[in-house]
Amino acid sequence: MKLLLVEDNRELSTWLTRLLQASGYAVEQAFSAEDAELLLVTQTYDAILLDLTLPKANGQVVLKHLRRKNNQVPILIISALDSLVDVIENLNLGADDYLAKPFDIAELEARLRSLLRRSNGKTNPIITCGRLHYNSNSKVFSANNKPLNLTPREHAVLEILIHRSGKTVDKKQLADSLCTLDDSISPKALEIYILRLRKKIEHSQAQIITLRGLGYMLSQVPSHHA
């Protein structure tokens, strides 16, 4: 899952980035509304963490521009402006959630997981495809009630696929969701991750289908093939 963190306090931004990366997120940083808007021209994100008190233009500018363009990327406001008026105003402008500074990183991650589940049409923290289960709170995958041993990249690929199970995920979209501008993943590497995952989930009644020219889809194996 790829996040954009818009926060002008560089020390706080670096700290948050490290913690979120340790939890498996790909994180890109913007230190101003202008930086954020430049990134949003070429990049897509699964969610945005948005501070309001930014230099020059405030975070509301980013929020308003995105919603005017009908861009429905989930936005979690993280701000010291925590009056009821501020919270209501920004939620009415289209923010999805609001977290007042200072905050606990565990609460931030919990809000973020909930936001990502809702944006993918999921409400239960346990996401299931066949006998493949993903606990989005603990971030643990299991197949046939046994934990799966996955590398960080395999985990990231399977997490995106199970969040969007039954839907086609474009190869470029999948690769972009795993990487930041300072990182990259080759098409060959992505194919290797998919091959490894197919082997690891082969008896779970879940399968990764290649849709030639379109991408990949995680789906349940039809019962007569199980």
Structural account:
The protein has 226 residues and is α/β, with parallel strands linked by helices. It folds into 2 domains: 2-119, 3-Layer(aba) Sandwich (Rossmann fold), CATH 3.40.50; 126-225, Arc Repressor Mutant, subunit A, CATH 1.10.10.10. It has helices spanning 10-22, 33-42, 59-68, 84-92, 105-119, 152-163, 171-178, 187-200; strands at residues 2-6, 26-30, 47-50, 75-79, 97-100, 126-129, 132-135, 140-143, 146-147, 169-170, 206-211, 215-220. The two termini are 30 Å apart. 30% of the residues are buried. The mean pLDDT is 90.
Integer count of domains: 2
Low-confidence stretches: none
Biggest pleated-sheet summary: 5 strands, parallel
Give the name of the CATH superfamily of the largest domain.
Answer: Response regulator
CATH fold type of the largest domain: Rossmann fold
User: Could you say which overall geometry the principal axes of the C-alpha atoms support?
Assistant: elongated
Strand content: 15-25%
Task: Evaluate the radius of gyration.
Answer: 18 Å
Keywords:
phosphorelay response regulator activity, Arc Repressor Mutant, subunit A, alpha/beta, 5-stranded parallel β-sheet, 2 domains, 12 strands, 4-stranded antiparallel β-sheet, Rossmann fold
Summarize the structure.
With 226 residues, the protein is α/β, with parallel strands linked by helices. 40% of the residues lie in helices and 23% in strands. The chain has two domains: 2-119, Response regulator (Rossmann fold, 3-Layer(aba) Sandwich); 126-225, Winged helix-like DNA-binding domain superfamily/Winged helix DNA-binding domain (Arc Repressor Mutant, subunit A).
